Amino acid sequence: MIGVIYIIKKTVYYLIRVILIMMFARALSSWLTTDEDSKLNSFLYAVTEPFVIPVRMLVDKIEALRNLPMDISFMLAFMILGFVQVLLSFANV
């Protein structure tokens, strides 16, 4: 049973790592490319947006954060996923 939990923990850990890499690539591509219709940008957006949407919905409920000149939900989602990854690395299973 402990082996199954260990495999699940490691799988989730590495999936989060891949998602964080894709989120980083999405952030870089938004700064570097001007073609928003590229296949790479579309792919990165499609993979990472499901993790950003729930955070964006929570941020929209907070009046002080709603009127900021930039969308901080992407950064918050990135930090939350990173925090979950750190918690998984410290979990003793």
Mean pLDDT: 89
- Largest sheet: number of strands, sense, barrel closure: none
Q: How many helix segments?
A: 4
Low-confidence stretches: none
The strand count comes to: 0
Class from helix and strand fractions = mainly alpha
Helical content stands at over 70%
Gyration radius, rounded: 16 Å
Q: What percentage of amino acids are in beta strands?
A: under 5%
Describe the structure.
The chain has 93 residues and is mainly α. It has one domain. Helices cover 81% and strands 0% of the residues. It is built from four helices and no strands. The longest helix is centred in the first third of the chain and has 31 residues. The protein is flat. The model has no long low-confidence stretch (mean pLDDT 89).
List the main descriptive attributes of the protein structure presented here.
4 helices; 93 residues; mainly alpha; 0% strand
List the SSEs and their pairings.
Layout: H1 2-32, H2 39-60, H3 63-66, H4 73-90
Helix pairs in contact: 1-2, 1-4, 2-4
In short:
This protein is 81% helix and 0% strand. It is mainly α and 93 residues long.
